């Protein structure tokens, strides 16, 4: 397996040249575009890795998976999905139009920005600091990684440049979908996106989902049903508006982030974390996707 | 003429029952729905009025006409229209979708909220207070009414409930169409909407436009070309997305506000101010429009 | 006046180089891009002309003005405007999206293709041949030009390439806005667009509107109210989605066609016909517009 | 298993009252709204069924799965997906707007009407009759049901009422995505939707996909890769714009039709056919979905 991963990294490294690093946030543009790393964890406790597996990067949109689980724990499935849908939107991740043109004003799903902002608004806590800390603690718990922390420079960068997200926040507020203070909701959202991780953290998140919400100790943190909702949404909406093509090519519940990360889940078997900061035009890690496609062909692990 | 106006008020008073007072801003909902008043000023210095002509109401969207003139004076026609278009949008006044779906990201015209917010962002001044004061002073100058002032309760109400406008502001900021601080721009915008006027103030604004930018003293404040731009935009976009129907029915450059006001211009002849807080479904004063249609039939003053 | 026109033609001839001839219909692409001609008729029976005033071209969208008048005569204003709106759409002339996304499924106005197809479906007659002949006869009557006839090559070309119009026709049929046979409705529509005219024909159409529906003999063919509706729609929607900018620049009720024609109306005074087959990006005659703007500055004939 | 199915039919029968039979095609409105039937086929040759399992109904949109496989066989994957996408659209199945507003003019996926019409245009044959016969023969082959035939009354009904599909066809023609004669393409499309089936036919289609393109004899008709593409598209887009919610609730590759049918695939194990003509607001069989959700809970067969 390790050899396979080493071979894969080498083979797909050149694909990184076809994309480019995210530049809408100045801090993200500092990533090394040719980086490519992978971490695989299986149910028997084995760990395999290759390439730039230990580079730090911010979790970005992969955090949407984490906040969704906590919001459902905090509020119940019914309340959460009364404020955000379960369906693919067919539009780019930062699009606002569907909020206005759709008969239902709620965001289409929790994987696009508008939906994730609504989800963040539902995290419970006595104040904004407490809410974020609860989210960070939950993230540490399920990834069994107590070292997780905020990357302040990226957070600052997000805050300064996040006007489209701010626009969505106020739109959702005007529709009474967000009930609290918009700036506080955005603080949580921008902070959750700015948590530093490595491919190992992300692979653990994948394994947690693969094991239907159980830690490596066997302790169940969330119900299988919640993980099933999350994994389904990852399949249908996890890779922005190229989720459909990704499902054909890779066929695993996955979620990408513009920081370069991808988490993939092989149900009941493995969690995979990838780092590949060079992005395609839709904002997905370009070499990470081709590597995962190749790996799935080798491992014959597709769910379809 | 006075008799005609008295007759008109009486005749159209019952139309007020077909609409309802704006309720999205709590303060506006306190208006008396059956109020109906009119003020007509002509070039010879005659003044005619009837009904609730001396009630105070906030100018709301009629202020878009005033801020547009000042923004062109401050920045020149070219710069202003590089940031906002001249074309009808076909969408409701508070719509955001065109900002995203259109190939040109700038708002369609200065009469819809998004466009007017951009215009407000271009008023010059050392700080936000100075900018608003310059706008208020300009409004006083062209309406020859030194008593104009802010209605603080309405302004507070606007600020608290203006999240859709806030959403647009941040969207325009993210597209670099607004360059300054969004909250400051919105402060100016909300304040300009919250200036108290009477039908006489509004009629004076109409006469100023009818006289191609000249005061009653003959002094030219803005060029005929700027007034032509403003009057044209009033015809094509002044009554929100029912501007086309209004142009057929009334046929005068006009601008409405959700406070119940309408300013109408009979080129080279008259300025008309109407107050009619009961609104139709598109946000236009319902009895004010039927009154103006009837009056135009009598006066044979249509421009078409 | 003749000298002024000659000077104008010479001055704006070079503007033709900035556009290009319509090529979506093969026959139209055969026009000479540098052609530029004008014809002016006034109420005293004077005729002025210059440039390529006697070239034949197909009337194209200018026919929408003619069919609208006949449809109102045939069906009454109320019925016609129950099936087509009076408001600018803010979208390109051949756009279909608003038919679906708008709460009102009817086309926004009779000047965009979808609206004009609905109007054509309302022309009365025993069969499709009779309907078109009635339209052609009406066109001959109001332009006092008995020589008007169909350009069969252009008609054939329209039919073969008109699939977007066909798409709209079937959409409108599915919404029950068109009640008859779609192919027959399109036959009328494509034929009305394919009538050959010269600038003189078009100037006569303008004068007919300027005189509120009266022929040169003084005979009233349609009511002033119908001409007012038509002229208003020309101002707000006559130049596709640049109607707003045109209204500022030229300020006369006008309608363009992709064949290169423009009809303009100086109320109570003149009718103007322009031929300028080189089009701008929105499908309007590029040199024709700049010529009209210049001419209006000279004649001081703006309605605003 | 048979007992389980009988119990399920009885339990979910009352859900049929919450929906209603399709009425946009007169023939479809004749179905009995309380009908509910199911057929299950497994790899060992076992057959289980209950309820109205032997009622005939037209296959409608489930045929999109069949035509897609044949079109890929005829043209290759690359050519097919150059004309139709692989991504969910987020809009209703008969929506036209995305064809215009999207930067890519091709339909989002082969499961919405616009995409399926493009797919039908790619079926090979010497003439329209041959093309449809090839499609029918292929359908017979993979369902091992030589009795399949066209329901002429439904086909006639489809042709007469299919103007929205006709509208899409001409739009796609105008964009050069469809190259042939639109009426012929629609004939194939309307006919493929009008093939009579029973739940058994549909269950066989499901088993064929479950077995990665193999008949019960073991003969491989299409490659596993093609079936994977089809199954993935069924998950992400198979239940119109409620595909996301369905994936959470049921979690099996499935495709519904307005005739009341649903095909579901349990990979490597079973094919399921359901008949439930009472539809929910999005056009999906309402009792069929609740029955499948319940059954999947019992069988623990979800892919997520």
Integer tally of domains of chain A:
2
**Spans of at least 5 consecutive residues with low confidence of chain A:** none
Instruction: For the largest sheet of chain A, list the strands in their spatial order.
Output: 3-2-9-8-7
Q: H/E element string of chain A?
A: HEEEEHHHHHEHHHEHHHEEEEH
Oligomer, anyone?
homotetramer
Overall average residue pLDDT of chain A: 92
CATH architecture group name of the largest domain in chain A: 3-Layer(aba) Sandwich
Beta-strand portion of chain A reads 5-15%
- Helix fraction of chain A, binned, reads 40-55%
Within CATH, the superfamily of the largest domain in chain A carries the name: DD-peptidase/beta-lactamase superfamily
Structure annotation, total helices of chain A = 13
> How much is the radius of gyration of chain A in Å?
18 Å
SSE topology:
Four copies of one chain form a homotetramer.
Chain A (H helix, E strand, L loop, with lengths): L1 H11 L7 E2 L15 E6 L4 E5 L5 E2 L4 H13 L1 H7 L13 H5 L11 H8 L7 H16 L5 E2 L1 H10 L1 H12 L7 H12 L1 E3 L1 H12 L13 H14 L5 H7 L4 E3 L4 E6 L3 E6 L2 E2 L6 H14 L5
Antiparallel strand pairs in A: 1-10, 2-3, 2-9, 4-6, 5-6, 7-8, 8-9
């Amino acid at each position: 397996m390790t050899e396979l991963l080493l071979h894969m990294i080498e083979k797909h490294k050149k694909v990184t040249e076809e994309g480019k690093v995210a530049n809408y946030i100045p801090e993200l543009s500092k990533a090394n575009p040719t980086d490519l790393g992978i971490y695989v964890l299986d149910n028997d406790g084995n760990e395999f890795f290759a390439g730039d597996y230990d580079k730090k990067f911010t979790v970005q949109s992969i955090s949407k998976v984490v906040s969704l689980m906590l919001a459902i724990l905090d509020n119940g499935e019914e309340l959460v999905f009364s404020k955000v849908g379960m369906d693919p939107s067919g539009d780019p991740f930062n699009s606002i139009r569907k909020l206005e043109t759709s008969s239902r004003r709620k965001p289409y799903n929790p994987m696009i920005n508008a939906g994730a902002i609504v989800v963040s608004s539902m995290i419970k806590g006595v104040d904004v600091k407490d809410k974020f800390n609860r989210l960070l603690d939950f993230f540490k718990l399920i990834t069994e990684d107590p070292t997780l922390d905020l990357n302040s420079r990226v957070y600052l960068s997000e805050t300064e440049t996040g006007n489209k997200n701010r626009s969505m926040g106020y739109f959702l507020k005007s529709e009474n979908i967000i009930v609290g203070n918009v700036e506080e909701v955005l603080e949580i959202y921008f902070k959750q996106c700015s948590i530093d991780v490595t491919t190992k953290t992300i692979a653990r998140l994948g394994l947690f989902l693969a094991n239907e919400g159980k830690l490596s100790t066997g302790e169940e943190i969330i119900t299988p049903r919640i993980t099933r909702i999350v994994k389904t949404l990852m399949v249908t909406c996890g890779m922005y508006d190229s989720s459909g093509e990704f499902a054909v090519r890779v066929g695993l519940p996955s979620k990408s982030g513009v920081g370069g990360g991808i988490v993939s889940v092989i149900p009941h078997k493995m969690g995979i974390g990838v780092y590949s900061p060079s992005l395609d035009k839709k904002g997905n890690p370009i070499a990470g996707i081709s590597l995962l496609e190749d790996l799935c062909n080798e491992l014959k692990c597709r769910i379809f």
